[in-house]
Amino acid sequence: MKRMILVAAGSAFLTVTALAQHEHHHPAPAKDTAAGMKMEMKKDTVPQQAPMHDHHMESGQPGHDHAEMEGHDMHSMHMSHAFSRNLPMTRNGSGTAWLPDNSPMYGYMFHAGKWMYMLHGDVYLRYNKQDLLNKGQRGDSKFDAPNMVMLMGQRAVGKKGLFHFNTMLSLDPLTVGNGGYPLLFQTGESYKGQPLVDRQHPHDVFAELSMSYAHALSTKSDVFVYVGYPGEPALGPVAYVHRPSGFFNPDAPLTHHWVDATHITFGVATLGFRYANWKIEGSTFTGREPNENRYNFDKPRFDSWSGRLSFNPGEKWALQASHGFIKQPEELHPGEDVNRTTASATYSIRGFGETFTNITALWGMNKTAGHDAEHGVLVEGSRSVKRKTVYGRYEWVQKSLEELNLSEAEFGHDAIFPVHAFTAGASYDLFNIGQTKIALGGQLSFYDPDRRLSKLYGDNPLAGQVYLRIYPRAMGTKAGPFYLPY
Hints:
The structure is a single chain. By secondary structure, the chain is mainly beta. 13% of the residues lie in helices and 47% in strands. A hairpin with a 2-residue loop joins strand 10 (206-218) and strand 11. The protein is globular and about 65 Å long. The two termini are 38 Å apart.
């Protein structure tokens, strides 16, 4: 009963917020004119320094004086990227990672004085059953409600500076439970002194509390500093919770601990530099993953490091490669450090209105001393047209004997078990309340594990779930280089 009350409270919070923001979202102008766009910008955004047009950034060529003056007028009321006054806000990912400029942005935007704010969040009310046909011994089922809410804000500092803060909170410890939710072949972290296997751990209540300052050296270059407690270091692609390609899938990827498990890190500091559409950044952070106490703040250690190179060759693409040294990430393996290497490509295109296509392909590798490297690959995508979305995910990941909590005497020392996982799902928006959507969805997952695991999981276990999802509408249509409210 307590969980149901909390879920209802969270849902009501999103709904009330949407109704409160309804007045701040207006239909796009009938004609795509500069005057119409300026009017909408003034209603829905706050002042800031004029960023360069996207096509100027991509070509590297400055615009004519008249074009620059017009760009200044049209951009002057537009929210920028979190770490650059000269990039579009749609490039914002998680932490300091980049998405394509074409990415949809789901949330509510509002302002007060010199501050611009954006609120984002969602909650899934679902029934989840892993191993639908009861073929194995490790399946489970559960009613739960994965959720999160984010509030970010920013304001100009002088003529070239930008201050930004970001908060992310989750009631997962209550609505999912400290033991996490069932998810076949998922591994990582622990609960009550035992490794979490075939379960996905919940988010901490405080998943991000960060701030940053960016300084524009020119319209084409910025330097920025980001600190978080907790926060996300410069390692891996945009975290799965924030990737539009996987935004409609309630489950964490099996590759989570190969690419983006550091997205909640208690203590991180990042320094970055952007030139045009290139960005290089480095982080020092705490390697230990959050402990099972999901309400506290873990000890900051700053014993790990990472570096990332990002490149957005155009508005449709975001590419990154990164490497990091992670000091003793798992509490149950205190002497085991991990070297993690990742690479990813994200592709996004927009159609008219709420039409989006988003695809991500990524690879991650974990290497620990004395063990062979373990690899993970993911390809996921979603296609949204008005009220309907279809999505899918394919993963191949190498799970170790240790991660699956198996007997060395039975399977041999350093045994590795490849697992293929396929997921297909669909979501349909039943109705809107202001700028908030209520959607009905469901998905099926098919697993093809190493045959040595058949007696534990069955030959090809299936999993399925149905859910109601509450989430905000995408914030705007595209009009030239701008994104205007619907």
